[in-house]
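Write out this protein's structure.
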Amino acid sequence: MQVQVTFRHMEPTNALKSYTSERIGKIERQLAKESAAEVILSVERHNHMADIKLRSGGVNMRGRESSTDMYNSIDRAIAKIERQLGRYQGKLRRFTQPPTAQQVALHTIEQPDDVDGQVSDRNQPEVVRTTLVDAKPLTTEEAIMQMDLLHREFLVFVDAESHHIKVLYRMEEGKLGLIDTAGDEPIGNA
């Protein structure tokens, strides 16, 4: 397994790097053969933060923890990933590497205000930021699993059956919403 450790706002030490690699190596046997981990260790004021992103066989998992001790933060972040693995172990066995993702552009649009704070008809909205997002072919069940593993508010994906772009998002009270962009033509070579 490839483990990349990045240090932010702190001195890099071999002890922390080897400890992190050793702890991640213990859960390697539960993962698919092609696995990679990205670890960011940082310090802000008195908080030691460990952010671990793990990719295994097309599934992404994330554990982020903060405490007053870096070793404790690493252990707690890995414990989160182990709980995620336990919860989704059966699904991970069935989950195969999806075909390559398609890129979808997400635009952030801003409506300019008039001088006195009122919106004017002559001021047109403008795109202030465009972000390219990889929309992987997934079933709705796999998309829900990915959202839970990554703790995201929304997920853009291509439906594996219909080949339409869909957006899964969190609503109030823990419910999920699904936007289906079903059009005349499916995305890709269907």
